[in-house]
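Bug report (template v2)

What were you trying to do?
Predict the complex of my protein with zinc ion.

What happened?
Run completed; filing so the output is reviewed.

Input:
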Amino acid sequence: MTEQRSTNTFKTEALRTGRFRLDGGGMFGIIPQALWSKWVERDEANRVGLQCNAMLLQDGERRILIESGYGEKWNEKDRSIFGMEDRTAVDALAEIGIEPDQITDVILTHLHFDHAGGITRWSDPKRGDDGGFEPTFPKARIIVQAREWEDALANRSTMTKTYLESHLKPIADRIVAVDGMSEILAGVTVRPVPGHTWGQQAIEWSDGKHEYVFPGDVCPTRAHVHPSASTAYDVEPWTNMNTKQAVLNRCREEGRLLVLGHDPDSPVVRCVGRPDGGRGHVLEPMESI
Ligand SMILES: [Zn+2]
């Protein structure tokens, strides 16, 4: 079956929506510490440095935000546990002159806190939780897979505090729940990439020069290129391993650029063969896109 795609293209910009830190064992699953600690730096608490990477797509009509980061609704204790920087998608957008009400669509790979936390904010920052919550992007629709939305509401996760009501309830009436692969906007296709969650989706588009794939936590950083490097938070590590191989093979064969949701340094990479000709892939940073 050939895929009918729109030829619509987008001005594409990478946004850094906040650094944070997670336990290295959690991030690398079954990979022994002796190995992963050679791939990435760890701190005294055994945490590794990550970034919440997002993308802004503009075509003159729509301003589409892919991922929203962890947002601002965190107290000092949370910020200390996760080493969270005081920075959000709103800050990243302000730096390029975009206001929250100019965002027309937010597309999320999945609804864990570090991807969906930024879709809501405190209505009154001085009162925190007591003042209630509101959508961060007042005019935006929120596009996720129906399966992800259902699992998030039912809190089906190996983590108890990642699908938070404060992220989800205030935007419930904005949700566009997609079922499977679909060109949800002209030139933007979502494709299921299960494993990390059952309902995770990749987002695909073109800027006229490159084709992009943003697959969420299928492969969160360059250090996750190893087939077995799936996070310990995955609901199905075996499925994620197979999903990742399929995504990497396709990017390499078709020359698509990959956007890594949590790489601390290089959000956009291309997938190439190993210099020694061995099996497996290398993710090479793109200096500019
Ligand atoms: Zn994540």
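What did the reviewer find?
The mean pLDDT is 94. Residues 212 and 257 are 5 Å apart (CA to CA).
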